Amino acid sequence: MRGVRGSVPTPAADHLAYGGNTACFTVDWDGGQAVLDAGTGLTGLTGAGPWHILLSHLHMDHIAGLFGFAPLQDSTVHLYGPAGSRSLLEGLVGPPFWPVGLGQAVLHETAPGRSFPLPGGVEVSVLAGCHPNGSLLYRLTDGETCLVYALDCELAGDMAARLTAFAQGADLLIWDAAFAPRDLRPGWGHSTWAEGIALGRAAEVGQVLMTHYGPDYDDRSLQAQERLAHEAGGLFAREGMTIEL
Ligand SMILES: [Zn+2]
Ligand SMILES: [Zn+2]
């Protein structure tokens, strides 16, 4: 886990026990690796690649790390994102907004209902999230182990039913816990840890990992939320944490 914050980075000292970088996760398996979202947590990640970066959507907290991602300049980087990603990212990452562009990055535009393979026998399927400007939720599986990435998604309309079906039986569900339950703002496109626990139970998910914490929640506030969630079986992500599936 490289970035567990939502909306904006929070480098303040009282936010660092959980972490101040925005959304970024690496997933490793035999024969491959993927990066989920390119928030500021992507900065500093190095290696020869080839890289496969899945973008949930193009809000800044999910792409800001591309500006500081050195492998773009000398490695093969595959970027997967919603329709329009190619021209939008090429316009944003580069002059006059930034001195260097996307290098040799290969952009793959995907859409809800589609699926695509990653090296090492992993298949990715895509579901539409409920979020301003849209979001893509991803399910990664090698046929045995399954991870569902569901950030920036509000359980409005039929979203809970669709996501319950999509996440059915997953080993790990990475969840949008942007709001504490008492602070939930309908229409903002986010969820709470309590909703994650309920949906995880309905979908018979092995473990629900909370992340994308709102920038206003300091460590003390997140600790209090984590205690409550922990009693109900939820886990709170911290920058640097790893989970073995
Ligand atoms: Zn976000
Ligand atoms: Zn968003």
Structure write-up:
The chain has a seven-stranded mixed beta sheet. The mean pLDDT is 97. The two termini are 14 Å apart. A hairpin with a 4-residue loop joins strand 8 and strand 9 (146-150). Helices cover 16% and strands 24% of the residues. The chain has 245 residues and is α/β, with parallel strands linked by helices. It has helices at residues 85-92, 159-166, 193-202, 219-231; strands at residues 25-29, 32-36, 51-54, 77-81, 106-109, 115-118, 122-128, 136-141, 146-150, 172-176, 207-211, 234-236. The chain is globular, with a radius of gyration of 17 Å. It has four helices and twelve strands. It has one domain (13-236): Ribonuclease Z/Hydroxyacylglutathione hydrolase-like (Metallo-beta-lactamase, Chain A, 4-Layer Sandwich), CATH 3.60.15. Bound molecules: zinc ion (2 copies).
Entry summary:
With 245 residues, the protein is α/β, with parallel strands linked by helices. The chain has helices spanning 85-92, 159-166, 193-202, 219-231; strands spanning 25-29, 32-36, 51-54, 77-81, 106-109, 115-118, 122-128, 136-141, 146-150, 172-176, 207-211, 234-236.
Overall shape:
globular
SSE string: EEEEHEEEEEHEHEHE
CATH topology: Metallo-beta-lactamase, Chain A
What structural class should be given to the helix and strand makeup?
alpha/beta
List how many beta strands DSSP finds.
12
**SS summary, helix count:** 4
Number of domains: 1
Poorly predicted runs of 5 or more residues:
none
Structural descriptors:
4 helices; binds zinc ion; five-stranded mixed β-sheet; alpha/beta; Metallo-beta-lactamase, Chain A; about 240 residues; 12 strands; seven-stranded mixed β-sheet; about 25% strand
